[in-house]
Amino acid sequence: MYDLHIDTDVTVQLSECCREDARAVFDVLDHTYQLEGLAPPGTQAETVPATTVWTATFDTAGGRHEQSSPAPLTGMVGAVLSGGYHAVDEVEKVLARSFAVQSVQSVSGDQETEARLLLAPR
Q: Cα torsion for 111, 116, 120, 122, to the nearest 10°?
C-alpha cells in the first residue's frame, strides 16, 4: 500500500565535477521530475566564482516523467541524494538508466535517507 504522506522531494548535491557534467545530470532529472529548488548550473552569470557543489531539489511526484539521452560525462561525479526513502530510491533508479552508478554510502534516519553515489559515463 502506498502511503500518500511520504515526502516526495529529493535534494541532489553534485560535487567534484564541472558545470557541463552537473548540467548533464540535472537535465536527466529535469526531464523526469519537477525542479523545485535552486536553478541548475548554466543559469548563472559566467563571472560567478567557481562552484564546487551544485544543488537542486526535485519533486518526484511531479514532472514530465520522460526519458532523455544525457550528454556524456567528462569524468566521475559525486552525488548526494537526500529525502524520503521511496523518493531517493526512485531518483537513484533514474540516474542508473543514464549513468554508471556506484553506491558509496547510505545513511538512514527515521523519516529520510541519504545516499552517496559516484556517477560515471557509460
A: -40
